[in-house]
Design a protein that fits this description.
This protein has helices at residues 19-26, 52-62, 78-95, 99-109, 115-120, 132-136, 154-164, 192-201, 203-208; strands at residues 2-4, 9-11, 32-33, 70-75, 147-150. By secondary structure, the protein is of the alpha/beta class. It has one domain: Rossmann fold (3-Layer(aba) Sandwich). Strand 1 (2-4) and strand 2 form a beta hairpin. The radius of gyration is 17 Å and the shape is globular. It starts with a strand and ends in a 5-residue tail after the last helix. The mean pLDDT is 89. It comes from Thalassobacterium maritimum. InterPro entries: P-loop_NTPase, Sulfotransferase. It holds the Pfam family Sulfotransfer_2. This is Sulfotransferase family 2 domain-containing protein.
Protein backbone atom coordinates (compact mmCIF):
# COMPACT_ATOMS: atom_id res chain seq x y z
CA UNK A 1 0.00 0.00 0.00
CA UNK A 2 1.26 3.46 -0.87
CA UNK A 3 -0.22 6.95 -0.38
CA UNK A 4 0.92 9.91 -2.44
CA UNK A 5 -0.60 13.03 -0.93
CA UNK A 6 0.63 15.49 -3.55
CA UNK A 7 -0.81 13.43 -6.41
CA UNK A 8 -3.88 12.42 -4.37
CA UNK A 9 -3.16 8.82 -5.31
CA UNK A 10 -3.47 5.57 -3.36
CA UNK A 11 -2.24 2.11 -4.31
CA UNK A 12 -3.83 -0.86 -2.55
CA UNK A 13 -1.86 -4.11 -2.65
CA UNK A 14 -3.80 -7.23 -3.52
CA UNK A 15 -1.50 -10.12 -2.50
CA UNK A 16 0.50 -11.80 -5.26
CA UNK A 17 -0.70 -9.38 -7.91
CA UNK A 18 2.47 -7.39 -8.56
CA UNK A 19 2.23 -5.52 -5.27
CA UNK A 20 5.97 -5.49 -4.57
CA UNK A 21 6.65 -4.22 -8.07
CA UNK A 22 4.16 -1.37 -7.77
CA UNK A 23 5.26 -0.39 -4.27
CA UNK A 24 8.88 -0.25 -5.44
CA UNK A 25 7.95 1.89 -8.44
CA UNK A 26 6.02 4.34 -6.24
CA UNK A 27 8.45 4.49 -3.32
CA UNK A 28 10.24 7.67 -4.33
CA UNK A 29 6.93 9.54 -4.61
CA UNK A 30 5.16 8.11 -1.56
CA UNK A 31 4.35 9.93 1.65
CA UNK A 32 3.06 6.78 3.37
CA UNK A 33 4.76 3.42 2.81
CA UNK A 34 3.10 0.37 4.26
CA UNK A 35 4.88 -2.09 6.53
CA UNK A 36 4.41 -5.70 7.51
CA UNK A 37 1.26 -6.16 9.56
CA UNK A 38 3.34 -7.15 12.60
CA UNK A 39 4.86 -3.64 12.71
CA UNK A 40 1.72 -1.50 12.77
CA UNK A 41 0.48 0.40 15.79
CA UNK A 42 -2.26 2.88 16.66
CA UNK A 43 -0.31 5.80 15.17
CA UNK A 44 0.70 3.96 12.00
CA UNK A 45 -1.96 1.42 10.95
CA UNK A 46 -0.83 1.04 7.33
CA UNK A 47 0.15 -2.53 6.45
CA UNK A 48 0.90 -3.99 3.03
CA UNK A 49 -2.31 -5.84 2.19
CA UNK A 50 -4.94 -3.88 4.09
CA UNK A 51 -8.31 -3.87 2.39
CA UNK A 52 -10.00 -0.84 0.92
CA UNK A 53 -12.47 -0.78 3.83
CA UNK A 54 -9.62 -0.86 6.35
CA UNK A 55 -7.75 1.89 4.56
CA UNK A 56 -10.85 4.05 4.30
CA UNK A 57 -11.31 3.72 8.07
CA UNK A 58 -7.66 4.72 8.59
CA UNK A 59 -8.17 7.77 6.36
CA UNK A 60 -11.18 8.82 8.39
CA UNK A 61 -9.26 8.37 11.65
CA UNK A 62 -6.49 10.62 10.28
CA UNK A 63 -8.96 13.24 9.06
CA UNK A 64 -7.97 12.70 5.42
CA UNK A 65 -10.61 13.01 2.71
CA UNK A 66 -11.00 9.57 1.15
CA UNK A 67 -13.06 10.83 -1.79
CA UNK A 68 -10.34 13.33 -2.78
CA UNK A 69 -7.94 10.50 -3.65
CA UNK A 70 -7.78 8.23 -6.68
CA UNK A 71 -7.45 4.61 -5.60
CA UNK A 72 -6.06 1.81 -7.76
CA UNK A 73 -5.01 -1.81 -7.45
CA UNK A 74 -3.84 -4.69 -9.63
CA UNK A 75 -5.95 -7.77 -10.25
CA UNK A 76 -4.73 -11.19 -11.37
CA UNK A 77 -6.29 -14.35 -12.75
CA UNK A 78 -7.35 -16.21 -9.56
CA UNK A 79 -6.21 -19.57 -10.94
CA UNK A 80 -2.71 -18.16 -11.36
CA UNK A 81 -2.73 -16.06 -8.18
CA UNK A 82 -3.57 -19.05 -5.99
CA UNK A 83 -0.63 -21.00 -7.38
CA UNK A 84 1.59 -18.03 -6.57
CA UNK A 85 0.17 -17.89 -3.03
CA UNK A 86 0.85 -21.60 -2.63
CA UNK A 87 4.49 -21.08 -3.53
CA UNK A 88 4.68 -18.16 -1.13
CA UNK A 89 3.52 -20.54 1.62
CA UNK A 90 6.18 -23.07 0.61
CA UNK A 91 8.84 -20.36 0.77
CA UNK A 92 7.67 -19.39 4.23
CA UNK A 93 8.00 -22.98 5.35
CA UNK A 94 11.41 -23.41 3.75
CA UNK A 95 12.90 -20.18 5.05
CA UNK A 96 11.14 -20.22 8.43
CA UNK A 97 10.45 -16.53 8.09
CA UNK A 98 7.16 -16.69 9.96
CA UNK A 99 7.12 -19.34 12.63
CA UNK A 100 3.45 -18.87 13.48
CA UNK A 101 2.33 -19.64 9.94
CA UNK A 102 4.77 -22.52 9.69
CA UNK A 103 3.38 -23.99 12.89
CA UNK A 104 -0.20 -23.75 11.66
CA UNK A 105 0.62 -25.37 8.36
CA UNK A 106 2.61 -28.16 9.94
CA UNK A 107 -0.10 -28.78 12.54
CA UNK A 108 -2.74 -28.96 9.84
CA UNK A 109 -0.92 -31.04 7.25
CA UNK A 110 1.85 -32.80 9.20
CA UNK A 111 4.30 -32.09 6.38
CA UNK A 112 4.80 -29.77 3.43
CA UNK A 113 1.32 -29.32 1.94
CA UNK A 114 0.44 -30.20 -1.61
CA UNK A 115 -1.29 -27.60 -3.75
CA UNK A 116 -4.61 -29.35 -3.11
CA UNK A 117 -3.97 -29.27 0.65
CA UNK A 118 -3.36 -25.56 0.45
CA UNK A 119 -6.21 -24.78 -1.91
CA UNK A 120 -9.01 -26.56 -0.03
CA UNK A 121 -7.94 -24.99 3.26
CA UNK A 122 -8.00 -21.37 2.12
CA UNK A 123 -10.20 -18.77 3.73
CA UNK A 124 -11.25 -16.26 1.09
CA UNK A 125 -12.27 -13.80 3.81
CA UNK A 126 -8.66 -13.36 4.90
CA UNK A 127 -5.94 -11.01 3.72
CA UNK A 128 -3.90 -13.36 1.53
CA UNK A 129 -6.18 -15.66 -0.51
CA UNK A 130 -8.91 -13.03 -0.50
CA UNK A 131 -11.51 -12.48 -3.17
CA UNK A 132 -11.71 -9.16 -4.98
CA UNK A 133 -14.96 -8.48 -3.14
CA UNK A 134 -13.32 -8.92 0.27
CA UNK A 135 -10.32 -6.81 -0.75
CA UNK A 136 -11.92 -3.97 -2.69
CA UNK A 137 -15.53 -3.60 -1.57
CA UNK A 138 -17.43 -2.07 1.33
CA UNK A 139 -19.74 -4.36 3.33
CA UNK A 140 -22.66 -3.21 1.19
CA UNK A 141 -20.84 -4.29 -1.98
CA UNK A 142 -19.75 -0.83 -3.16
CA UNK A 143 -16.40 -0.99 -4.95
CA UNK A 144 -14.07 1.40 -3.13
CA UNK A 145 -11.28 1.30 -5.71
CA UNK A 146 -11.47 3.56 -8.75
CA UNK A 147 -9.01 2.04 -11.20
CA UNK A 148 -7.98 -1.55 -11.88
CA UNK A 149 -4.86 -2.70 -13.70
CA UNK A 150 -4.24 -6.26 -14.82
CA UNK A 151 -1.21 -8.16 -13.61
CA UNK A 152 -0.92 -9.84 -16.99
CA UNK A 153 -0.19 -6.45 -18.62
CA UNK A 154 1.36 -4.76 -15.62
CA UNK A 155 4.49 -3.17 -17.11
CA UNK A 156 2.58 -1.42 -19.88
CA UNK A 157 -0.55 -0.56 -17.91
CA UNK A 158 1.33 0.73 -14.86
CA UNK A 159 3.65 2.99 -16.84
CA UNK A 160 0.72 4.42 -18.80
CA UNK A 161 -1.43 4.86 -15.70
CA UNK A 162 1.23 6.61 -13.63
CA UNK A 163 2.17 8.89 -16.51
CA UNK A 164 -1.49 9.93 -16.78
CA UNK A 165 -1.45 10.67 -13.05
CA UNK A 166 1.54 13.02 -13.35
CA UNK A 167 4.27 10.46 -12.56
CA UNK A 168 6.20 9.96 -15.82
CA UNK A 169 7.16 6.28 -15.94
CA UNK A 170 8.64 4.22 -18.74
CA UNK A 171 7.76 0.56 -19.20
CA UNK A 172 11.39 -0.46 -18.70
CA UNK A 173 11.33 1.24 -15.29
CA UNK A 174 8.76 -1.26 -14.00
CA UNK A 175 10.70 -4.31 -12.75
CA UNK A 176 9.09 -7.63 -11.91
CA UNK A 177 9.90 -8.21 -8.25
CA UNK A 178 9.18 -11.01 -5.76
CA UNK A 179 8.08 -13.44 -8.46
CA UNK A 180 7.61 -17.10 -7.54
CA UNK A 181 10.50 -19.29 -8.59
CA UNK A 182 10.63 -22.94 -9.63
CA UNK A 183 6.94 -23.11 -10.48
CA UNK A 184 5.20 -24.65 -13.45
CA UNK A 185 2.49 -23.09 -15.59
CA UNK A 186 -0.53 -22.62 -13.37
CA UNK A 187 -2.85 -24.91 -15.36
CA UNK A 188 -0.68 -27.92 -14.55
CA UNK A 189 -1.57 -27.64 -10.84
CA UNK A 190 -5.28 -28.25 -11.35
CA UNK A 191 -7.57 -31.16 -11.95
CA UNK A 192 -11.29 -30.90 -12.68
CA UNK A 193 -12.22 -30.78 -8.99
CA UNK A 194 -9.77 -28.04 -7.99
CA UNK A 195 -10.58 -26.03 -11.10
CA UNK A 196 -14.28 -26.12 -10.21
CA UNK A 197 -13.47 -25.16 -6.61
CA UNK A 198 -11.76 -21.96 -7.77
CA UNK A 199 -14.54 -21.24 -10.27
CA UNK A 200 -17.05 -21.32 -7.41
CA UNK A 201 -14.99 -19.38 -4.86
CA UNK A 202 -13.73 -16.70 -7.26
CA UNK A 203 -16.43 -16.83 -9.94
CA UNK A 204 -17.56 -13.24 -9.48
CA UNK A 205 -14.16 -11.75 -10.26
CA UNK A 206 -13.40 -14.29 -12.98
CA UNK A 207 -16.52 -13.04 -14.74
CA UNK A 208 -15.96 -9.37 -13.83
CA UNK A 209 -12.46 -9.24 -15.34
CA UNK A 210 -12.96 -11.72 -18.18
CA UNK A 211 -10.55 -14.35 -16.90
CA UNK A 212 -10.54 -17.94 -18.06
CA UNK A 213 -8.79 -21.08 -16.93
Amino acid sequence: MRILHSQKLVFLSMPRAGSTTVRNTLDQYSDVKSVHVSKVDADFPFFHHMTASELKAAFEAKGWQWDDYRKFCVVRNPYDRLVSLYHLSLNILANQRKQSLKGRLMARFGSVPTFEDYLYAINTNSHLPCTFKFFACAPDGEVLIDDLLKFENLSTELSDYLTQRGIPTQEQEVPRLNASEDRRKYRSYYDDKSRQFVAEKFGEEIDRFGYEF
